[in-house]
């Protein structure tokens, strides 16, 4: 029985296959998913040829120390924001041997949300081999912590697949 849903494993397998074919190394910078994106990638045999590293940066301090996210960005926009997601993805490339990276930062709940940033709000960014950064904002709603995290993994892997394909 697979650890993760079949569709997640299939997307992770596609990421590994395309990255391997293109000779690309990838990295993941994760907050609310706590390493699940990296876990999905490492569930695939042969992922060591492609996955350089995963950064689990749950705290703001970790985002600053491990990924080089500016304290100013965090103070001005917050951890759950487009600028932070972009900085996390870019930092993952700069601080690894990867040329492609994805980042995830959001509010999985059940608490922690606000009117501006409700539970289920997740920001994603991906850096492609071309250096272009793509941002995506999802509002999954208050569907439960586990469901938000799984949907976030699906979205992050989809963005990573696009990033290794361009």
Automatic annotation (TrEMBL):
SUPFAM superfamilies: CinA-like (SSF142433)
Residue ranges annotated for the CinA C-terminal domain, each copy included: 10-163
InterPro entries named in the record: CinA-like_C, CinA_C
Protein name: CinA family protein
């Amino acid at each position: 029985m697979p650890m993760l849903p079949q569709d997640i494993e299939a997307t992770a397998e596609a990421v590994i296959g395309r990255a391997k074919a293109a000779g690309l190394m990838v990295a993941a910078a994760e907050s609310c998913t706590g390493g699940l994106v990296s876990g999905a990638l490492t569930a695939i045999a042969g992922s060591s040829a492609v996955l350089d590293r995963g950064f689990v940066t749950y705290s703001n301090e970790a985002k600053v120390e491990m990924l080089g996210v500016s304290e100013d960005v965090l103070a001005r926009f917050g951890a759950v924001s487009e600028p932070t997601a972009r900085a996390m993805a870019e930092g993952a490339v700069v601080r690894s041997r990867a040329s492609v990276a994805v980042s995830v930062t959001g509010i999985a709940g059940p608490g922690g949300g606000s009117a501006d940033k409700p539970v289920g709000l997740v920001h994603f960014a991906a850096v492609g081999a071309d250096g272009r950064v793509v941002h995506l904002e999802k509002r999954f709603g208050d569907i439960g912590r586990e469901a938000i995290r799984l949907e976030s993994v699906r979205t992050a892997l989809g963005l990573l697949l696009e990033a290794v394909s361009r």
